[in-house]
Write a structure and sequence with these properties.
The chain is mainly alpha-helical. The chain has one domain. Helix content is about 70%, strand content about 5%. Strands 1-2 form a two-stranded antiparallel sheet. A hairpin with a 2-residue loop joins β1 and β2. The radius of gyration is 19 Å and the shape is globular. The chain starts with a helix and ends in a 5-residue tail after the last helix.
Length: about 250
Protein backbone atom coordinates (compact mmCIF):
# COMPACT_ATOMS: atom_id res chain seq x y z
CA UNK A 1 0.00 0.00 0.00
CA UNK A 2 1.27 3.47 -0.93
CA UNK A 3 0.84 5.37 2.33
CA UNK A 4 1.44 8.77 0.70
CA UNK A 5 -1.27 8.08 -1.86
CA UNK A 6 -3.72 7.23 0.92
CA UNK A 7 -2.77 10.34 2.92
CA UNK A 8 -3.07 12.68 -0.06
CA UNK A 9 -6.47 11.27 -1.00
CA UNK A 10 -7.65 11.60 2.60
CA UNK A 11 -6.60 15.27 2.66
CA UNK A 12 -8.39 15.97 -0.62
CA UNK A 13 -11.64 14.33 0.50
CA UNK A 14 -11.39 16.04 3.90
CA UNK A 15 -11.18 19.44 2.18
CA UNK A 16 -14.09 18.70 -0.14
CA UNK A 17 -16.47 17.22 2.43
CA UNK A 18 -15.24 19.70 5.04
CA UNK A 19 -16.44 22.50 2.76
CA UNK A 20 -19.83 20.82 2.62
CA UNK A 21 -19.90 20.24 6.38
CA UNK A 22 -19.10 23.87 7.15
CA UNK A 23 -22.15 24.87 5.10
CA UNK A 24 -24.31 22.51 7.16
CA UNK A 25 -22.87 23.99 10.36
CA UNK A 26 -23.52 27.60 9.27
CA UNK A 27 -27.13 26.77 8.42
CA UNK A 28 -27.76 25.07 11.75
CA UNK A 29 -26.05 27.68 13.92
CA UNK A 30 -27.65 30.70 12.22
CA UNK A 31 -31.12 29.48 11.25
CA UNK A 32 -31.68 26.47 13.49
CA UNK A 33 -32.41 24.46 10.34
CA UNK A 34 -30.95 20.99 10.04
CA UNK A 35 -30.79 20.92 6.27
CA UNK A 36 -31.01 17.35 5.00
CA UNK A 37 -31.44 18.61 1.43
CA UNK A 38 -27.71 19.12 0.91
CA UNK A 39 -27.56 15.88 -1.05
CA UNK A 40 -30.00 17.38 -3.56
CA UNK A 41 -28.14 20.73 -3.66
CA UNK A 42 -24.86 18.87 -4.15
CA UNK A 43 -26.18 16.80 -7.05
CA UNK A 44 -28.13 19.75 -8.53
CA UNK A 45 -24.94 21.84 -8.65
CA UNK A 46 -22.94 19.01 -10.17
CA UNK A 47 -25.46 18.50 -12.95
CA UNK A 48 -25.66 22.27 -13.46
CA UNK A 49 -21.89 22.43 -14.00
CA UNK A 50 -22.14 19.48 -16.39
CA UNK A 51 -24.83 21.20 -18.44
CA UNK A 52 -22.65 24.32 -18.67
CA UNK A 53 -19.69 22.20 -19.78
CA UNK A 54 -21.84 20.72 -22.56
CA UNK A 55 -23.64 23.88 -23.69
CA UNK A 56 -21.40 26.85 -22.83
CA UNK A 57 -17.74 26.18 -22.03
CA UNK A 58 -15.54 23.53 -20.45
CA UNK A 59 -13.01 26.05 -19.11
CA UNK A 60 -12.17 25.33 -15.48
CA UNK A 61 -13.10 28.71 -13.90
CA UNK A 62 -16.41 28.69 -15.78
CA UNK A 63 -17.26 25.26 -14.40
CA UNK A 64 -16.33 26.30 -10.87
CA UNK A 65 -18.51 29.42 -11.15
CA UNK A 66 -21.36 27.36 -12.64
CA UNK A 67 -21.23 24.90 -9.74
CA UNK A 68 -21.18 27.65 -7.12
CA UNK A 69 -24.03 29.61 -8.73
CA UNK A 70 -26.16 26.52 -9.31
CA UNK A 71 -25.58 25.42 -5.73
CA UNK A 72 -26.58 28.89 -4.49
CA UNK A 73 -29.76 28.65 -6.56
CA UNK A 74 -30.51 25.25 -5.05
CA UNK A 75 -29.99 26.67 -1.57
CA UNK A 76 -32.39 29.53 -2.25
CA UNK A 77 -35.01 27.07 -3.53
CA UNK A 78 -34.69 24.95 -0.39
CA UNK A 79 -34.98 28.08 1.74
CA UNK A 80 -38.14 29.19 -0.06
CA UNK A 81 -39.74 25.75 0.26
CA UNK A 82 -38.58 24.45 3.64
CA UNK A 83 -37.67 27.48 5.79
CA UNK A 84 -39.75 30.55 4.93
CA UNK A 85 -43.20 28.90 5.23
CA UNK A 86 -42.55 27.27 8.63
CA UNK A 87 -39.74 29.10 10.43
CA UNK A 88 -42.15 30.79 12.89
CA UNK A 89 -44.37 27.74 13.44
CA UNK A 90 -44.32 25.40 16.46
CA UNK A 91 -41.78 22.57 16.26
CA UNK A 92 -40.05 24.40 13.42
CA UNK A 93 -36.82 22.43 13.68
CA UNK A 94 -38.53 19.06 13.37
CA UNK A 95 -40.73 20.32 10.53
CA UNK A 96 -37.70 21.74 8.73
CA UNK A 97 -35.81 18.50 9.15
CA UNK A 98 -38.69 16.49 7.65
CA UNK A 99 -39.26 19.05 4.88
CA UNK A 100 -35.63 19.15 3.79
CA UNK A 101 -35.43 15.36 3.85
CA UNK A 102 -38.50 15.23 1.59
CA UNK A 103 -36.91 17.76 -0.79
CA UNK A 104 -33.76 15.65 -0.84
CA UNK A 105 -35.59 12.45 -1.70
CA UNK A 106 -37.89 14.02 -4.30
CA UNK A 107 -35.13 16.19 -5.77
CA UNK A 108 -32.60 13.43 -6.25
CA UNK A 109 -35.24 11.19 -7.82
CA UNK A 110 -36.20 14.07 -10.12
CA UNK A 111 -32.57 14.44 -11.20
CA UNK A 112 -32.41 10.70 -11.84
CA UNK A 113 -35.54 10.93 -14.00
CA UNK A 114 -34.29 13.97 -15.94
CA UNK A 115 -30.63 13.06 -16.51
CA UNK A 116 -30.93 9.29 -16.49
CA UNK A 117 -29.02 6.71 -14.44
CA UNK A 118 -25.70 7.05 -16.27
CA UNK A 119 -23.07 9.00 -14.31
CA UNK A 120 -21.71 12.17 -15.90
CA UNK A 121 -18.14 13.38 -16.05
CA UNK A 122 -16.66 16.87 -16.07
CA UNK A 123 -13.47 17.74 -17.94
CA UNK A 124 -10.32 18.33 -15.94
CA UNK A 125 -10.39 21.74 -14.29
CA UNK A 126 -6.80 22.07 -13.10
CA UNK A 127 -4.91 20.47 -15.99
CA UNK A 128 -2.83 17.29 -16.06
CA UNK A 129 0.49 18.37 -14.53
CA UNK A 130 2.07 16.66 -11.53
CA UNK A 131 4.55 17.41 -8.78
CA UNK A 132 6.84 14.75 -7.31
CA UNK A 133 8.42 15.26 -3.91
CA UNK A 134 9.97 12.76 -1.49
CA UNK A 135 8.43 9.82 -3.31
CA UNK A 136 4.95 11.37 -3.25
CA UNK A 137 3.23 12.34 -6.48
CA UNK A 138 0.71 15.18 -6.25
CA UNK A 139 -1.52 15.55 -9.30
CA UNK A 140 -3.07 18.79 -10.48
CA UNK A 141 -6.57 17.83 -9.34
CA UNK A 142 -5.41 17.08 -5.77
CA UNK A 143 -3.48 20.32 -5.40
CA UNK A 144 -6.26 22.31 -7.08
CA UNK A 145 -8.97 20.77 -4.92
CA UNK A 146 -7.17 21.56 -1.66
CA UNK A 147 -6.18 25.11 -2.60
CA UNK A 148 -9.61 25.97 -4.05
CA UNK A 149 -11.43 24.67 -0.95
CA UNK A 150 -9.19 26.65 1.37
CA UNK A 151 -9.46 29.79 -0.77
CA UNK A 152 -13.26 29.58 -0.87
CA UNK A 153 -13.50 29.18 2.89
CA UNK A 154 -11.13 32.12 3.45
CA UNK A 155 -13.26 34.30 1.15
CA UNK A 156 -16.47 33.32 2.97
CA UNK A 157 -14.84 33.94 6.36
CA UNK A 158 -13.57 37.38 5.34
CA UNK A 159 -16.99 38.26 3.91
CA UNK A 160 -18.72 37.25 7.14
CA UNK A 161 -16.25 39.30 9.18
CA UNK A 162 -16.26 42.45 7.06
CA UNK A 163 -19.61 42.83 5.32
CA UNK A 164 -22.92 44.00 6.73
CA UNK A 165 -24.76 40.85 5.65
CA UNK A 166 -22.00 38.72 7.08
CA UNK A 167 -22.24 40.49 10.42
CA UNK A 168 -26.00 39.93 10.40
CA UNK A 169 -25.43 36.20 9.91
CA UNK A 170 -22.91 36.15 12.75
CA UNK A 171 -25.39 37.96 14.97
CA UNK A 172 -27.98 35.28 14.15
CA UNK A 173 -25.46 32.63 15.13
CA UNK A 174 -24.62 34.21 18.49
CA UNK A 175 -28.05 35.38 19.64
CA UNK A 176 -31.04 35.16 17.30
CA UNK A 177 -33.37 36.86 19.78
CA UNK A 178 -31.11 39.89 20.17
CA UNK A 179 -30.61 40.00 16.40
CA UNK A 180 -34.37 40.14 15.89
CA UNK A 181 -34.69 42.93 18.46
CA UNK A 182 -32.20 45.16 16.59
CA UNK A 183 -34.03 44.63 13.30
CA UNK A 184 -32.18 41.77 11.62
CA UNK A 185 -34.90 39.98 9.66
CA UNK A 186 -34.89 36.20 9.75
CA UNK A 187 -36.47 35.85 6.30
CA UNK A 188 -34.01 38.11 4.50
CA UNK A 189 -30.97 36.73 6.29
CA UNK A 190 -32.04 33.15 5.62
CA UNK A 191 -31.75 33.66 1.86
CA UNK A 192 -28.18 34.91 2.25
CA UNK A 193 -27.30 31.97 4.48
CA UNK A 194 -28.80 29.37 2.17
CA UNK A 195 -27.25 30.94 -0.94
CA UNK A 196 -23.78 30.95 0.63
CA UNK A 197 -23.99 27.43 2.01
CA UNK A 198 -25.51 26.21 -1.26
CA UNK A 199 -22.57 27.76 -3.09
CA UNK A 200 -20.18 25.86 -0.81
CA UNK A 201 -22.04 22.64 -1.64
CA UNK A 202 -21.84 23.50 -5.35
CA UNK A 203 -18.10 24.04 -5.15
CA UNK A 204 -17.70 20.72 -3.33
CA UNK A 205 -19.70 18.99 -6.08
CA UNK A 206 -17.47 20.32 -8.86
CA UNK A 207 -14.29 19.51 -6.94
CA UNK A 208 -15.47 15.99 -6.18
CA UNK A 209 -16.18 15.46 -9.88
CA UNK A 210 -12.42 15.56 -10.43
CA UNK A 211 -12.21 12.34 -8.42
CA UNK A 212 -15.61 10.70 -8.93
CA UNK A 213 -18.29 10.88 -11.60
CA UNK A 214 -21.24 13.21 -11.12
CA UNK A 215 -24.11 11.19 -9.70
CA UNK A 216 -27.13 11.83 -7.52
CA UNK A 217 -25.66 9.36 -4.98
CA UNK A 218 -22.32 11.11 -4.35
CA UNK A 219 -23.57 13.13 -1.38
CA UNK A 220 -26.81 11.26 -0.75
CA UNK A 221 -26.82 8.13 1.34
CA UNK A 222 -30.42 7.52 2.26
CA UNK A 223 -29.53 4.84 4.78
CA UNK A 224 -27.19 7.10 6.74
CA UNK A 225 -29.73 9.93 6.72
CA UNK A 226 -32.47 7.73 8.09
CA UNK A 227 -30.19 6.39 10.80
CA UNK A 228 -29.20 9.93 11.74
CA UNK A 229 -32.79 11.17 11.75
CA UNK A 230 -33.67 10.02 15.25
CA UNK A 231 -30.59 11.54 16.88
CA UNK A 232 -30.99 14.77 14.94
CA UNK A 233 -34.60 15.03 16.02
CA UNK A 234 -33.64 14.69 19.68
CA UNK A 235 -31.01 17.41 19.26
CA UNK A 236 -33.56 19.68 17.57
CA UNK A 237 -36.12 19.19 20.32
CA UNK A 238 -33.56 20.14 22.97
CA UNK A 239 -32.71 23.29 21.04
CA UNK A 240 -36.39 24.25 20.71
CA UNK A 241 -36.97 23.80 24.44
CA UNK A 242 -33.95 25.92 25.22
CA UNK A 243 -34.60 28.79 22.78
CA UNK A 244 -38.38 28.76 22.46
CA UNK A 245 -40.15 29.95 19.28
CA UNK A 246 -37.89 31.81 16.86
CA UNK A 247 -39.01 35.45 16.36
CA UNK A 248 -39.77 37.06 13.01
Amino acid sequence: MDIWFVISNAIVLACIYGTLAIGVSITWSSLGLLNLAYGFIFAFAGYGAWVVSQQVSDWGPVLLAAGILTGALGGVLVCALAFIPIHDKPNFTIRGLIGTLAINLLGTQGLLWWFGPRAKTLPGIFGDWKISMSGMVLSADKIGNVLTSILMLVVVLRWMQGSRRGLEIRAMMMNPHAAAIVGIGVRRTSFYVMAITGGLAGLAAVLLSQTYYISRTNAHDQGREHRALRGAGQCARRRDRRNGARPE
